[in-house]
Amino acid sequence: MTTAIQHREDLTVSSSPPARPAGADPAPPGRRLRAPGRALGVGVVGLWLSVIVLLPLAALTVASLEQGLAGSWEAVTSPAALAALRTTLLVSAVVALVNSVMGTLIAWVLVRDHFPGQPIINALIDLPFALPTIVASIVLLSLYGPNSPIGVQLNATRWGLIVALAFVTLPFVVRSVQPVLIELEREVEEAAASLGASASTTFRRVVLPTLAPAIISGTGLAFARAVGEYGSVVLIGGNLPRETQVVSQYIQQQIEIDRPVNAAAVSVALLSVSFLTLFVLRLWGSRSQRRQERTS
Amino acid sequence: MRTSRRATLTLRILALAYVVGLLAVPILVILYRTLEPGLGTYIDSIRTPAAIAALNLSLLIVAIVVPLNVVFGVVTALALARWRVPGRGLVQAIVDLPFAVSPIVVGVSLIMLWGTSGWFGGLEGSTGVKVIFGLPGMVIATIFVTLPFVVREVEPVLHEIGTEQEQAAATLGASHWQTFWRITLPAIRWGLTYGVVLTVARALGEFGAVIMVSSGFPGVSQTLTLLVHSRYIDDHNTYGAYAAATLLMGLAAATLLLMTVLDRKKGSR
């Protein structure tokens, strides 16, 4: 599901649509669409996006402030909420790190190495994006849960959370590094090698700097996804407060025990974390793009 | 970069071990455990009344969500690509927003808007339509999480095909409607189909947003994903959960296959 990554990249790297092909008329015919027809279309789009996306998020924000800014701060900084936030950030950071190393390594092996069965491995990478999250949870439990056939029980531990999140975020780094590796020109590496650089030096000094933007972008997306994840951790995590309860589980619990204001306040905090991550990625992405344009 | 034979092998083994241990082995184990008691047991498990009701509900939600997303998604893509509307950057950001929101937060937001004490809470009192804990809530939650797919697949195609043909049609006297049906729609059909496939897959698989707004009664308001969850958690029916999950896995595999085929079609267009 490469497009899913593309979406995520759209989200962070470029908001501008691709340049129109040369020769396309700058004034599209839609411009000449009767004003009432276009106004109706724009109105429909505005109403649709408002009712489906904007109003719910606005209602959430207002609800989080029902007891004033101090009340929502208290909700977010209550010990249980803080513990859930800490667990989530810690586990997501570990998973992002694991992804940055293993994702790059897998992309490298898929592009530079050749072995029988490679297309199957390549196809497997997309599976976590296509698989429903609750299925991911069950699939991992069948191997790493109670009655594990290999005797490894990770359910209700932080390791279980890490495995589940690593499962659902695996494609991000692999699929963002892979195209860059394919495009990478081998001449520079060969030049470095002929000048006497060892393989590890060539990798560190020549290959890694080129891959870095793709690795960081994929890692950031994996982190943003892990922070909000619910379905894949709900069964394997165990939802132990202060131990394995992640933020999304805490929010769900607050709704269940009828504390909607707490749920809304922590939801806004969680949203802020994801938005901040994606915003930093986008800033960073456009900056490195500009730098690349300057040097090329 | 030339790596030594040993380094190549080490890297290969590391990558393979990670992918196999994380993806391949768990999937093989669940398939084995599902099919081990025999195909008959498996079929019985996915043909219980609750399971059939869950499949029907999931398909019903898909049947409602897909047409809505197609119509509104294509109009939104047209607005973004063809009509020079003010604030396009903002619309782009709003379209991408659902990708950044945790499913649980989607659920909480919808409760705050449509729940009995929410902004639109009066609706239930005046019309008797139960949004949260009813079918409308599950449909709205699914629309929220799938909203970007059609727009994001169709908009780039609209940019790519340009406007020459549409202009030619208009010059030859075609109405806007005719131009759309005869020129634009055929040009975007593969992109649109791809968007629909992504929408269907996500709609069938959505869990977090839907569980927040569903009452979760077996046979009434359980989708397939909720069935997997309740069989595992509430009924301690591990085998039943495996069986339902395997069914969903089959649907996901079919989606992947379809996407690969469509990718080629899109490329060869």
Map the helices and strands.
The complex is a heterodimer of chains A (296) and B (269).
Chain A: H1 2-12, H2 35-64, H3 68-76, H4 79-112, H5 118-125, H6 127-130, H7 133-144, H8 158-183, H9 186-194, H10 199-228, H11 247-256, H12 260-295
Chain B: H1 5-35, H2 39-45, H3 49-81, H4 88-100, H5 103-114, H6 122-127, H7 135-161, H8 164-171, H9 176-205, H10 208-213, H11 224-233, H12 238-268
Descriptive overview:
- The complex is a heterodimer of chains A (296) and B (269).
- Chain A has 296 residues and is mostly helical.
- Chain A has two domains: 35-64; 68-295, MetI-like (MetI-like fold, Orthogonal Bundle).
- Chain A is 74% helix and 0% strand.
- The longest helix of chain A has 36 residues, at 260-295.
- Chain B is mainly alpha-helical.
- Chain B has two domains: 1-36; 49-268, MetI-like fold, CATH 1.10.3720.10.
- Chain B contains twelve helices and no strands.
- The two termini of chain B are 36 Å apart.
- The model of chain B has no long low-confidence stretch (mean pLDDT 90).
- Chains A and B meet through helix 1, helix 2, helix 4, helix 5 and helix 6 of A and helix 1, helix 3, helix 4, helix 5 and helix 7 of B.
